[in-house]
């Protein structure tokens, strides 16, 4: 086994060990739901922030003020 392969195997083993320590007595399925939910929230948050930063039409929505919006929107 090469050094890089050995390091990757050790990293994989350590990540699983840390995950098991953090999880403790919680069922693996419940822990997986929490972690995947958190990752999904982060994914959505980053994409929403990018969308609000520069919209598809080139407008930077984050820079708009109340004066830039029509009255019923604020």
TrEMBL record:
Annotated InterPro entries: D12N6_MeTrfase_N, SAM-dependent_MTases_sf, T1MK-like_N_sf
Q: Does the keyword Transport apply?
A: no
* Key words, A-Z: Methyltransferase, Restriction system, Transferase
| One GO MF term | methyltransferase activity
What Gene Ontology terms for biological process does this UniProt record contain?
DNA restriction-modification system; methylation
| Chain ranges of the N6 adenine-specific DNA methyltransferase N-terminal domain | 11-50
List the Pfam families hit by this protein, alphabetically: HsdM_N (PF12161)
Taxonomically, the superkingdom here is Bacteria
Quick check: keyword Transferase in the entry?
Answer: yes
Family statement drawn from the similarity comment of this UniProt entry: Belongs to the N(4)/N(6)-methyltransferase family.
Q: What is this protein called?
A: Type I restriction system adenine methylase
Tell me which species this is from. Moraxella macacae 0408225
| Taxonomic placement | Bacteria, Pseudomonadati, Pseudomonadota, Gammaproteobacteria, Moraxellales
